[in-house]
Amino acid sequence: MDRVIERTKTQRLMKYWPYAAGGCLLIIVLLWVIFGDHASTLRVNRDELTISQVERAEFKDYVRTNGQVLPIQVVQISPEEGGIVMEKVVEEGSHVKKGDVIVRLSNSNLDLQILNAEAELAEKQNLLRNTQVAMQQDRLNNQTEQAQLDMDTHRKQRTYEQNRQLYDAKLISLEDYLQSQEDYQLSAKKRSLVSQRLKQDSIYRTVQMDQMEDNLQNMRRNVVLVRQRRDKLEIRSAIDGELGLLDVELGQSIQPGQKIGQLNDLSDYKVQAQIDEHYIDRVRQGLSATFARGERQYQLQVRKVYPEVREGKFRCEFVFRGERPDNIRTGQTYYIDLELGLPEQAIIIPRGTFFQTTGGQWIFVLSADGSKAYRRPIRIGRQNPQHYEVLEGLEPGERVVTSGYEAFKDNEVLVIK
Prior knowledge:
Blueprint: H1 9-14, H2 17-35, E1 41-44, E2 51-53, E3 55-59, E4 62-77, E5 83-88, E6 95-96, E7 101-106, H3 108-168, H4 174-231, E8 234-236, E9 241-246, E10 253-254, E11 261-276, E12 288-293, E13 296-310, E14 313-321, E15 333-339, E16 344-350, H5 354-358, E17 362-366, E18 372-377, E19 379-383, E20 387-392, E21 399-401, E22 413-416
Helix pairs in contact: 3-4
């Protein structure tokens, strides 16, 4: 007969152990989901990081750029008259005085124009002389006619007065008296009309002579101008300076207004720089700048700001204030610190390559013990070649990672070994 074997209490409890273990595991998972740190982490070596201190200090608002020394003025060489290059009197790099001949040209067409203008002037002069002679003869003829009319009128007046006395004495007939009176009145009227005609002719001739004289003067001036054009075949220096460029060859045909070279005014210098377009609204005429040469500092001032932006940069010109370097030469490069504003107290961090990845929107901040670094959003304000101004997100005394973030990808926690 079989006997029923009763299970012990321990055996009965072991039946529920798998369920209890599963429940505990589920509770642990839930607690990890609710309270655990899910941020993605990355282990990095401390030696590979640049760790900087957040400080409250004086922020100097300036931008650093490199500028090139240029002459204070560049004058373009463009001939007023075209022609063939016959002689290069001065070579590039030579110093010239105002009025010195640089290039001589030849223009046969211009020579022909000068000959034609001179021949036309001579023809007009002969015409004017002939007209003057003819007018003088007309004047003499008019004076002779006037004298004859005066004499004839005077005689008929005398005859009329004599006949009037004879008629009053009843010595002549009425008809003789009236004829002498009519002859006298007709002669007086003819003299008056002729006098008016001669006066009008004199005025007309005077106006005609004045017009011809004006035309002759204009032709004389035209000949002078044409002759001056010949003088302009000698291209001369407009200023005292240095011949920086001369792009002509013997026998080359040059057109009027064509640029063939330039003159550099070395009485003073300017510095031209290319500045990032980020600063275009802050750079204006009159701002101060400095640069170091050797152990000395030199002062500059913004002279002109060009509004055009090319390849992300705009052009700016500086002039010297005070002394210039002794060995200054065209083409030298100076590293310029352009002051955009007055220094102010601010929270600052050193510049670093992290900015290229984050754009200044976030940064890794070290924990108090320095074992980890956590990603934190920040807001960057102004910047200079050495520091960034932090407007939000950091406090003085904290430490941040300012080296490049390319290897960190999207990790939010750095475990520093």
